[in-house]
Amino acid sequence: MPDRLVVLYRGNRPPATALIERLADTVYATEEELPYLLPGADALLAWVTITPAIREAWPDNPDKAPRWVHAASAGVDSFLFPALVEDPGVVLTNARGVYDQPTAEYVLGLILALAKDFPGTWEHQQRREWRPRPSDSITGRTALVWGTGPIGRAVARLLRAAGMLVRGAGRTARAVDPDFGMIHGPTTLPSALAEADYVVLAAPLTQDTRGMVDASVLAAMKPGARLINVGRGGLVDEQALVDHLAAGRLAGAALDVFGQEPLPTRSPLWDMPGVMISPHTAGETTSEREALIEVFLDNLTRHIEGRPLRNVVDKRRGYVVDMTHPA
């Protein structure tokens, strides 16, 4: 049994607390309480993941830092601070696999909503206006999925099933890939952007990917294309996106994540034509909490028994390396 497991929560505690408490000496901490309860803990379950609290509460003495940190999320950018990354004795795991299919479904829904202009239909309904108009078809359209991890692959499979031509973009080019058909690397990325009707961002936020969609990338996109971001807000230069949307180079965007969340009310993105905004909910489902705790409980059992943990993050890269499809 771990000496002590700290569960970081906000609002509601995770499900299955009775089972967690039977397996480990468990204490619960809010973000304010974490600096007092984290030092000396053996493990940390971060039920809250988008927060500076873990970095701020991390013990200065490495001997007092937890040896295992589990993030109840797919993204781990909040955990990639030097003290955690550079300590070889700290293992970081995540909830890889939980969000793949829900996010893929959400992306397909966003593409259909943009192509069929569902927001416009809803506005006309609210005004009781009968306004027939044609809509775009997604069959045969090209989607470039930027990010070839499990979420990107789930997106690619679903978009292909819907009749779209799908390509991937990642660190390593591949001429043949089972999910993407082919994957573009940095050299052929500009030509891939120029051909894509939809560019879907599903990459993790790391030092290498922060700000990767800048003015030059947006300028390389096909005129009239649409950008969808279900990765992290920090992937995109938001001001450059606003400028390209305002200039009419892009037909629109569907954004689920932002550099600052909640998105400030003063952001021009709220009112821009062709832009859909959602509050970081692409992967959320009614069964999300149960799926997240199932992954954690499996790893907690493995931790107690001394077996290898699932979903171990490569802290230098910022994501779990899939040796079947290494990025």
Automatic annotation (TrEMBL):
Tell me the leader sequence span. none
Q: Where is the D-isomer specific 2-hydroxyacid dehydrogenase NAD-binding domain positioned along the sequence?
A: 108-282
Record's Pfam families? 2-Hacid_dh (PF00389), 2-Hacid_dh_C (PF02826)
Q: Does the keyword NAD apply?
A: yes
**Where does the record place the D-isomer specific 2-hydroxyacid dehydrogenase catalytic domain?**
30-313
What keywords were assigned to this record?
A: NAD, Oxidoreductase
Name the protein family: Belongs to the D-isomer specific 2-hydroxyacid dehydrogenase family.
Name of this protein: D-2-hydroxyacid dehydrogenase
Q: Which organism is it from?
A: Streptomyces purpurascens
